[in-house]
Amino acid sequence: MANTLLQVWILIATVTVFGPCTVAQPPSKPTNASQVLTKAMTYDFSQTSDLSDFEIQWGVDNIFVRDGMLQVVMDEFITAPTIVYSKEIPAGKIDVVMKAAAQSGVATALMLYETKGATVDAKDNSYPNDEIDIEIVGKDPFEVQTMFFRKGKRVAENIYSENKKLNVSTAEVFIHYGLELTNEYVKWYINHQEVRSYSSSPDKFPRDARFFRIGVWAGIGRESWAGPLDLTQGPFTAQIQSIMVTPYANGEASSSVPTGKTTASGDQVSTVQIESVPLYESLWNRLKSIVNANLGKLAESAKNFRPVQLV
């Protein structure tokens, strides 16, 4: 019996250790130039509550501006509120000043997707899209995860994901996050500090990610990654002070584009220290979470086990 239980949780750990993959539906390219952002824009929510440049994909009553901040609220009824920038950004930089949602099992995500939507392709039940992420899970609010997918697929584990450890909780202070995409590279930033860079390669580069999204979602079924979730403890809210979107003409960071305001007056960003999490440590921590979560389930199953009596 013990050997069987051991084999079960090893199998579970092997299958799920590499975490979640959240990707979008097959791409729909722009039909006219008006769909592409051509000048830098800043949205300072201490100065405006206008969300007309955004589309609320899910949770129209759960995404709003209040107290000088954009609030993205997840509760037991709306478990994946998502807001999308309406213009395409084929190349550029996104800057967000944000306090993440605080709760085990809740993920706060800043994403560049290939499409606006997030539904499955009905023809082959797949998500063949490019994606670039910054994700924070409430299980460990002191860690920021950076990752990307090429046509819905992970590349090697040491390439697709890197985690950064902070000395402050992402759920308690406002932090400046950045995503930058050009023809040559993807870069991730924390408080204006470049924390990761990945250079272009023909088959592994998420070049088609172009729609910016912010979401707070429940890691139901992914407790080994996000942590256990109790929806009755909600609501869970991510708060955004400002969003800055800067497009790059011709996919080059040095390109000259019409510029708008580059800082938001209401931003109050905390100073943080950033440390890279070694790959082996990240995988080991995830494996321990998986084992602990599933050992509890197996122990409960064993406790309730009743042998069958043959008549």
UniProtKB/TrEMBL annotation:
Transmembrane segments: none annotated. Pfam families: Glyco_hydro_16. It comes from the Eukaryota. Keywords: Glycosidase, Hydrolase, Signal. InterPro entries: Beta-glucanase-like, ConA-like_dom_sf, Glycosyl_Hydrlase_16. GO terms for biological process: carbohydrate metabolic process. GO terms for molecular function: licheninase activity. The keyword ATP-binding does not apply. Residues 43-257 form the GH16 domain. Residues 1-24 form the signal peptide. Its EC number is 3.2.1.73. This is Transglycosylase. It comes from Dimargaris verticillata. The lineage of its organism: Eukaryota, Fungi, Fungi incertae sedis, Zoopagomycota, Kickxellomycotina.
